Amino acid sequence: MQKNLFLSTFILLFGLLASGAFAQTTAVKATPVSGEVGSIAADKLVLKTAAGDVEAALSDKTQYFRVPPENPSIKAAVASSLAEIGVGDKVVVMGILSDDKKSMPAKSVYLMSKAAINERQQKSTADWRTRGTVGKVSKVDLMAKTITVSQRGFMGERLITVKPKADAEYFRYAPDSIEFAKAQKSRLAEIVLGDEIRILGNRNADGSEIEAEQIVTGSFQTSGGTIKSIDLAKNEVVITDSGTKKDVTIAISEISILKQFPQEMANRIATMQSGGGQGGGFRPPQGNGASNPPANPPTGGGQTNPPTGGGQAPNGMGGGGGFRNGGGIDDSRFQNIKITDLKVGEMIGVLSTKNTDPARIKAIKLFTGVEPFIKLSQMAAMRQGGGGNSGGGASLNIPGLDGFGGN
Q1: Smaller CB count within 10 Å for the chain: N or C?
Q2: Structurally, how many domains does the chain consist of?
Q3: Can you tell me the distance from the alpha carbon of 90 to that of 214, in angstroms, rounded to the nearest whole number?
Q4: pLDDT digits (tens, 9 = 90+) for 131-187
């Protein structure tokens, strides 16, 4: 996910760059079109955009500029040429888009090469690995402009004070998505109690404070229960929620991630959860508070395709038999399954964004093999006087389904 986050940041900034550049270069109303170069000819570029292919006609008057990924600004742009553009590069073309939105004469072309982006992505991934922190928001102080983040591990809860820099960037995930490409620009005031949060920034000596440069938040929930029915035609599953005892319809899309949680691992982790007696989700010790960058979720039919890049996150399986070195479960090597593999009567866990309709959710991730965690939550609820209703105070802690912190 970190690569998507970094690349999408470029696309967002590149779009702003294009708008600003155009405002400064011409008074004629035009549309900046951004996309990936699909093909190149002496007289045209074909761009692959979210809305479809766009053909950009080139002429001897077309101007070319190269923008460095580390500084996507007009001032940093330098003169370039058509010869420097390659298939797969990211470009913004300035010009007047045709009525059918399929062609345009190119007045200027702003380029970010694929090679430069990949190099910058690798540096960013390493940066997040060493300076990234993950947790859950426990307090937001708008007056002091600080965020208190909670992390939980074997040693109990640890609180970290986040102090955003004046130029810190904020992003928030869109409903029903953990794709950064769909994330929206955000601000401190939009961060709420209980949000999952990722922070990039420098920590102080004891790790109790972070000077944040980039903050990514999302509002997620974990649901679990027993499958009541499966509708293959609609790609929907109905469960009886283990907490509320009410039916919940789960919609599965082409980007939903479906996995089988290994039974032995589930039993082992649930036993540790029970012995530790801690709420808020299981994680191995966090050390100095660092966390791995998020993994890349699959796109387009992610529940059936194997993960790319060898199937592991940057730190692979780590040293903990399925845990990331920086904390959190590594589910990238869990077996991929399909909706047709689900069975009525089995227990599943689902990660979704919080919404206004608790009776219907869209699955971001769905795990089978999570019965030990659900039963543990039910037993905890009974001890708390909830009569087995985990919604009565005991949290449902399924590693890997605890927001993007577990991904």
Answers
A1: N
A2: 3
A3: 23
A4: 999 889 999 999 999 999 998 765 678 999 999 999 999 999 887 777 766 788 999
Q: What token pair was written down for 268?
A: 């082992």
Q: In what order do the strands lie in the sheet with 220-231?
A: 335-336, 257-260, 365-368, 347-353, 220-231, 236-241, 247-251, 360-362
Q: Which amino acid is at 85?
A: I
- Give yes or no: residues 238 and 210 share one domain: no
For residues 208 and 226, membership in a common domain is answered with no
Q: Is the pLDDT of residue 123 over 70?
A: yes
What are the backbone angles phi and psi of residue 335, rounded to the nearest 5°?
A: -65, 130
Distance CA 240, CA 364 (A): 19
Domain presence at residue 120: no
On whether both 252 and 281 belong to a single domain, the answer is yes
Domain that holds residue 207: 130-218
Please tell me whether residues 103 and 23 are part of one structural domain: yes
- Kindly report, residue by residue over 293-351, the tens digit of the pLDDT: 343 333 333 333 322 333 323 333 233 334 444 445 778 889 999 999 999 999 999 99
Is 125 among the domain residues? no
Burial of residue 161 (number of CB atoms within 10 Å: 0-12, 13-18, 19+): middle
CA neighbor of 251 nearest in space, from 133, 405, 355: 355
